[in-house]
Amino acid sequence: MTQDDSIGEFEIPNDRAIEAERGQPVRLGRKRDHTRDAAILDASLDVLAEVGYDGMTMDVVAARAKAGKGTVYRRWSSKAEMVLDAVARMEDNEADLERLPDTGTLRGDLVAMIRPSSLVESERRLKVMAGLASMMSRHQELAEAGNAAVVEPWVGALRVLMQRAADCGEIPASADVEAVSQVIPSMAAYRVFIQRKPFDRDFLVSLIDGVVLPALRPGPVAAEPAPRSPTS
Amino acid sequence: MTQDDSIGEFEIPNDRAIEAERGQPVRLGRKRDHTRDAAILDASLDVLAEVGYDGMTMDVVAARAKAGKGTVYRRWSSKAEMVLDAVARMEDNEADLERLPDTGTLRGDLVAMIRPSSLVESERRLKVMAGLASMMSRHQELAEAGNAAVVEPWVGALRVLMQRAADCGEIPASADVEAVSQVIPSMAAYRVFIQRKPFDRDFLVSLIDGVVLPALRPGPVAAEPAPRSPTS
DNA sequence: CATATGCGGAACGAATTAGTTCCGAAACTT
DNA sequence: AAGTTTCGGAACTAATTCGTTCCGCATATG
Fold first, then answer.
1. Which of A190, B178, B211, B213 gives the lowest tally of CB atoms within 10 Å of its CB?
2. How many helices and strands, by DSSP H and E, does chain B display?
3. pLDDT per position as a tens digit, B24-63
4. Residues of chain A found within 8 Å of residue B147, distances taken between Cβ atoms
5. What sign has the CA pseudo-torsion A59, A62, A68, A69?
6. How many Å is the maximal CA-CA distance in chain A?
């Protein structure tokens, strides 16, 4: 700054000075529209669920989000980074799993977790996982993001419900809560992308009544059943 | 045939005539080496398990099998057909699942199915499935081939063991054998390509003792546990 | 021996696609 | 008003890969 600078200019710092001070750049020009971020990431997840990582092209994603590719690449430097971000942010929108039911019985709680909206959302997430599957074997970070966003919150919620039932004495303390809480998510994945059967309320209820609750039920304590003679 | 044809020519037909009659062409030239088929399909499965369908290139498969691409395309008209054949033929090599153990107890049978060679083979098959996953959502035929080759024989073997135990009265007739027989394969898939933890004997034994056998165990018959008051 | 096919390998053509660049218009700062 | 950045959209570049074709050699029939 020159000697001619007025005091006024010195006392009322310009935006560049503010930027330098606060580390929050006040940039010239049109501001970035951050609602486009969500639109692009959402389009990514849709395409991912439909055709998988390798079948997904940036042109299709941009077109579906009604965005130019320049807008996409201004935000993420590559397809891989965009997908990673899309998967990571799925984790945030899980209001369902935060407020757990408390009906008085474990069965009531498990059944109460089945709501039409969560069925649709869970199926979409499972399909996203399937779309990532072949990529996950090569990309460790992506596998962890997928697990953290799709499966782990679900397992965690079920574990809390089961642990609470164990603490209340509704199920025996010896129950393997850690293993059983993985049964529903893993069999859901098996059903959605191997069996390709509908992921609906009936399926989950029969899983709860046919596998989960029986596995947690108190049983003969250390009463080894007598071996039958081999049925040769 | 003309009137000049000798009787000899008529009675000893040439190879072309044999071909026409039997529909088994007797072709000129070097014969196709069918041991190359297996080498190429095996290389396909290896590459498929490593990098997935879309990451797999025909050049790499041919090179790994020490074959030229011409040799490959003489056998299958496209990458998709080759992979479909490779997956379908996996189904045949399942000697393990044919001769089921019969130890006298269900637990003994289930544990007896865990052998080092079957662990390795199962893990490879699960990785092949993972490599196909994103493709399966688009290609119905491939999804069915994968299921028939990898999962269904495994589920089927477990179902037989469990059904036999039910018939012998070792487990209650009310047990949901159909659902429980899917637990081990689906949780194995979950472990291998989502959790990415080792697929070993300890995992399977703890699954048998922590989930499968408890779920099949006789329990309080229609004894609804008293609801606790919600833990508000 | 003449002819025809299969072999591994390399080169080639066509199509796809990640990522870049440019356009005109809109929105923001100075 | 002037300058700067973002926007959607289109054109472009460079790399990859499927599938074909050709080569020289091996192996089969006639």
1. B178
2. 15, 0
3. 557 889 999 999 999 999 999 999 999 999 999 999 999 9
4. 194-195
5. negative
6. 106
**Distance in angstroms (rounded) separating the CA atoms of residues B23 and A11:** 99
Q: Give the C-alpha separation, B215 to B206, whole Å.
A: 13
DSSP conformational letter for B137: T
**Pair B215, B180: CB distance under 8 Å:** yes
CB contact under 8 A, B220 and A217: yes
pLDDT tens track for B59-96: 999 999 999 999 999 999 999 999 999 999 998 877 77
Strand C within 7 A of A73 CB: yes
Give the contacts of A35 (CB within 8 A, at least 6 positions apart): none
pLDDT in tens, A92-126: 877 777 789 999 999 999 999 999 999 999 999 99
Measured CA to CA, the distance from residue B150 to residue A141 in angstroms comes to 27
Q: Is B15 a residue whose pLDDT tops 90?
A: no
The sign one gets for the Cα dihedral A116, A121, A125, A130 is: positive
Q: Which nucleotide has the shortest C1'-to-CA distance from B74?
A: C6
